[in-house]
Design brief:
Length: 288
């Protein structure tokens, strides 16, 4: 896989998804795909592409959608690497089997995996080593994946990358609007990214170990207080990178009462639906 120039992940989604789909292609979106990916897909649709949504992480439903949808152009699966709302990885092994069967590509937004997840996960290093992201964590072969990620989560820098088949990267550099019509990333951001990567190279394994320990300690402590957490088999840090780990709390009147007793006057209802309890997220830092 060959990396392209760094750009903000929003620009990458707006560039890549219309280019991948073309004017007559079809994008198959996991229904939980990150809003930035959905914005890129909407732009692709404005330019003529067709959009198909499939149930979250359902490989069989994806295969059925591909089987039943005719397309005169390219077909591309769009998903996250790790879903911040639930802390679970995409079903990429299943998606890859489907992609191979139908000869399509997979666009993976791995903003929440890069810098945290890596290769060879095990009991002593549950997130794996190296921080290469979800593809390394799942030992996925290259060839059908366009791997996109932001450095703003784990590295704290507003830059992003795209990696994929070399021919596509060459095509991207020659045709993507933000490469042709925009200036390069600013030098302070590049310097910050280099410094963050140097810290990662030196301390990344130590920070990931501390993050896993903090996550486990947080979950155990909340459980002892009678606060039930949404199940998370992998104990992935949710919605954040090296700056902290998060866990979603199961809603319910008992939990809401605990919150209101601790913080009277606070509204823990969802602003979008006042009848549904909000799922709150706590963060544990990698700092000592």
């Amino acid at each position: 896989m060959v990396s392209a120039k760094n750009k903000h992940v929003t620009h990458i989604a707006l560039d890549l998804l219309p280019l991948l789909a073309g004017k007559h292609g079809t994008l198959f979106l996991d229904e939980w795909a990150y809003p930035i990916s959905q914005e890129g897909a909407a732009l692709a649709a404005h330019r003529g592409a067709h959009l198909v949504s499939f149930p979250h992480n359902e490989g069989q439903a994806l295969a059925a959608a591909l089987q039943s949808t005719a397309s005169n152009g390219e077909r591309v699966i769009v998903c996250n690497g790790v879903y911040s709302a639930g802390g679970y990885p995409a079903a990429l092994r299943s998606f890859l089997r489907v992609a191979g069967e139908f000869g399509v590509l997979i666009y993976v937004d791995d903003a929440h995996g890069v810098g945290i997840l890596g290769e060879h996960p095990g009991p002593g290093c549950p997130y794996g080593r190296g921080g290469g992201g979800i593809c390394a964590y799942l030992s996925l072969p290259a060839g059908r994946i366009v791997h996109v990620g932001s450095l703003s989560k784990a590295f704290g820098v507003p830059l992003a990358f795209v990696a994929g088949p070399a021919a596509f990267i060459d095509y991207l550099e020659a045709n993507a609007g933000t490469f042709i019509h925009s200036s390069p990333p600013d030098l302070p951001s590049l310097a910050a990214a280099l410094a963050a990567l140097q810290v990662h190279a030196r301390y990344g394994e130590q920070l990931r170990t501390r993050l896993a320990q903090s996550t486990a300690r947080l979950r155990a402590g909340l459980h002892q207080q009678g606060i039930n957490l949404v199940p998370n088999r992998q104990s992935f840090p949710r919605g954040c990178g090296c700056a902290g780990a998060g866990d979603w709390l199961a809603g319910g009147s008992n939990y809401q009462a605990k919150c209101l007793n601790s913080y009277p006057g606070q509204n823990y209802r969802s602003p979008g639906n006042a009848s549904i309890n909000t799922l709150l997220r706590f963060h544990s830092s990698t700092d000592p």
